[in-house]
Amino acid sequence: MDFYELHLAGLVRRLPKVAISKDLSIASFVMMGDTELVERCAEKLTEKLGDISLDALVCPEAKAIPLTHAMARIMKLNYVVIRKSVKGYMVEPLVETVRSITTTEEQTLVMDGSDVAKIRGRKVCLVDDVVSTGASLRSARQILDRAGAITVAQAAPLLEEGGHDGEGVTFLETLPVFPTEK
């Protein structure tokens, strides 16, 4: 297996290169379970966001949850998780669909009505683990807009090359993509 050596937040990680299509491979970045990396990225992203005035953080389920939790702890904020399916306990959920570079099928993004009440009229930062094309951010922002939240920042440890241009996203490093060798 081929690997990419990632330098992020003062740490080094070996990421396996994984083919996601016949023409493209990515370095698979999964920070869940890597406490040291999550904590360091949370510290660095919080520093980069500076003194921006926020009321809450919001993230999509699931890989961005530990990062968002760590950032919320540092910033002394609460956070909301946008889920990937409607749950039986949800009341009046908001639903958006998205197709991202790392998924083969359309995904559903859902915000519980009780979470809508927590962020309506509030200034939020949307947090993710990697921004590729930006499709997930756009869909999450649509839910946030419908919820009446004011999205004042977007943040992720990594911006994947060849997709989103990075405008409006606070990020720490870029992550290359790799053409599949023929």
From TrEMBL:
Lineage top rank: taxon: Bacteria
CDD domains found in the cross-reference section: PRTases_typeI
Single GO molecular function: glycosyltransferase activity
Pfam family, one: Pribosyltran
UniProt keyword terms in alphabetical order: Glycosyltransferase, Transferase
InterPro entries membership: PRTase-like, PRTase_dom
Domain Phosphoribosyltransferase: 37-155
NCBIfam families: PRK07322.1
Protein name per UniProt: Phosphoribosyltransferase
Native source organism of the sequence: Dethiosulfovibrio peptidovorans DSM 11002
